[in-house]
Amino acid sequence: MSEKHRRVLDALELREPDRVPVMDLMNEFAVANAVLGKRPNPLTRLLVDPRTARICDRLIARTSFLPLVDQTMDTLAHRGAAAAVALGYDAAWITYLPVFRLRSSKELTDVFGRLYEMSVDRDGNLASPVYREGLIRGPEDWYAWPKREIFRLPEKVNRVFRNVQKESGEDLFIFGLANYGLFENAWQTMGFERFVVAARKERGFLRRVIAFYSDLQCMLVEAAADAGIPGFVLGDDLAYRSGPMLNPSLIEELFGDHYRRIAETAHSLGMKVLFHSCGNISSLLPFIADWGFDAVHPLEPTAGMNLAAAKREVGGRICLVGNLDISYLLVEGTREEVEEAVRQAIREAGPGGGFILAPDHSHPRISIPRLRWMVEAAHRWGVYPLQESGD
Amino acid sequence: MEDYPERVRSALSELDPEGITPLLSEALEAGTPATDLLRAMSEAMTEVGRRFESGEYFLADLVLAGEEMKEGLRLLEPHLPKGEAGAKGTVIMCTVRGDIHDIGKNLVVNMLTSAGFRVVDLGVDVPAEKVVEAVRRESPFAVGLSILLTTMVGSIGEVVEGLQSAGLRDRVKIAIGGACTTPELVERYGVDALGRDAVEAVRIFSSWAT
């Protein structure tokens, strides 16, 4: 086992490693390309330029460009892993989501029923598409929705993760993300307003939808495990900046057993599984630990997440991953500010192990020098036994 | 005689799975004044907001109540005296340029409407010039800007500058809200308030209403 794998496993299993591991979400072309010195895909410009966009629209009306879109996601997964290695990370969240379809030069859909706007960053890289609305209005739409492409996902995920693992897996503990979470897939495909009405008035239908996505998620865990990657990410934003979007007891009722099943599936295959939810998840931390996940990310400081409090409450049961701010610190922060934030995070969550340092999300404007400062500071302040302790 | 306003108040604040529209139809048929029913709905929404702030209700509950309120208003509107709805003044609401998230914005729109404001909802991905046009046209006392994406915070500054250039900045107060908003942004762009959630937004706009 490589030094990096041992370090990450120690943290995930709540032991003190030799040093606090560092990881990141490598799901933006801007960051990966900048690290690797790659240029944006020139085809992206064709979609943005009004003169060529019209021609693209006509072509897109005739074909879904499915292989091209899937290939783009494949490239992102490979480059994300390679960039994570180049940055000196111990672990990385690698996304492979072969679910998008071009609807026009400005819009995308996914195989589940979301509509997005295309997003291109200032350098001309494709950025994460921006969710606009759900296309499924009710049970009839959902049952009629074509699911053939959904059923093909595990095979695609298995192929791409196998290659990424072969290429970068020795130098990196890979956490793969291959689908949206159960809550996100349930509400975003129908819109939040429609979802809350369904949660109140059409519970049976909603349960059916959630069970479908739970089965799929377990198949994807199997596919990722078969590909040889050691970690899996279940990304399911259950909260917004001031708290959970649903009553935690309703979350437990609708999703709890499914989350347990996903975590158990991963464990039975020897994988670790990380739960990601943006927002203020303070009140959900005990649930996430109870569901059996090995780690929780990102403990967003701008949503009021307090790392020291999280460590006190669930640090003995689940590994904490985060919580460096990406709204200011890793975009414009000074070297001293980055260093101090790293020190503070390690001071609060590092003692006893069970902590992995990471940015609290990703976006195209994150500064590469600041990511390097973060890694350097972690190497300086994260060596066990720690020089500073929050006790 | 049935106390329909009380039944409406209770059904909405308790988030009755049946919803309030069947009850409102029944109440109107029985001759209950629409203004009494509207008042009951507004009081119920205040109660929903109180329960949200106390932690008893969650975002989904607020949204559900807001959706019920919207349906109920649609039903009551033809029966209300002109000017009854929106009597507290006009607010312009939008999600800023470059951002298309609308859950928070829609919720604030519903909550403000139920609190008696006239809300002009410009939608999502709204450029600064459209906000300026709307301020000139609608004479609001306030503008609410919703933003979720960290990468688009500059759009707040564009609205502030647009209103300043048009000589309209002094006529309106500006509140911002959404996942990426912070007190630093309030200071950086010279806006007047930051709302952490829809209930706080209602409180902020109410404090500004003349």
**Total DSSP E strands of chain A:** 14
The structure class of chain A reads alpha/beta
Percentage beta strand of chain A: 5-15%
Please tell me how large the radius of gyration of chain A is.
Answer: 20 Å
Oligomer: heterodimer
What share of residues of chain B is helical?
40-55%
Low-pLDDT segments of chain A: none
Tell me the strand order in the biggest sheet of chain B: 2-1-3-4-5
What Rg of chain B do the Cα atoms give? 18 Å
| Number of domains as seen in the coordinates of chain B | 2
- Rough shape of chain B? globular
CATH class of chain A: Alpha Beta
In CATH, the architecture of the largest domain in chain B is: 3-Layer(aba) Sandwich
Sheet-strand content of chain B, in percent, reads: 5-15%
Q: What's the end-to-end separation of chain B, in Å?
A: 38 Å
Q: What is the count of helical runs of chain A?
A: 17
Task: Detail the topology: elements first, then pairings.
The complex is a heterodimer of chains A (391) and B (210).
Chain A: H1 3-12, E1 23-25, H2 29-36, H3 42-48, H4 50-62, H5 66-86, E2 91-95, E3 100-102, E4 107-110, E5 114-117, E6 130-134, H6 139-144, H7 148-151, H8 153-168, E7 173-177, H9 182-188, H10 192-201, H11 203-227, E8 231-235, E9 239-240, E10 243-244, H12 248-268, E11 272-276, H13 285-290, E12 295-297, H14 307-314, E13 319-324, H15 329-332, H16 335-349, E14 355-359, H17 368-381
Parallel strand pairs in A: 1-2, 2-7, 7-8, 8-11, 11-12, 12-13, 13-14
Antiparallel strand pairs in A: 3-4, 4-5, 5-6, 9-10
Helix pairs in contact in A: 2-5, 3-4, 5-8, 8-11, 9-11, 11-12, 16-17
Chain B: H1 4-13, H2 21-29, H3 34-54, H4 59-76, E1 90-95, H5 103-114, E2 118-121, H6 128-138, E3 142-146, H7 154-165, E4 173-177, H8 183-189, E5 193-195, H9 198-208
Helix pairs in contact in B: 1-3, 2-4, 3-4, 4-5, 5-9, 6-7
Quickly describe the structure.
The complex is a heterodimer of chains A (391) and B (210). Chain A is an alpha/beta fold and 391 residues long.
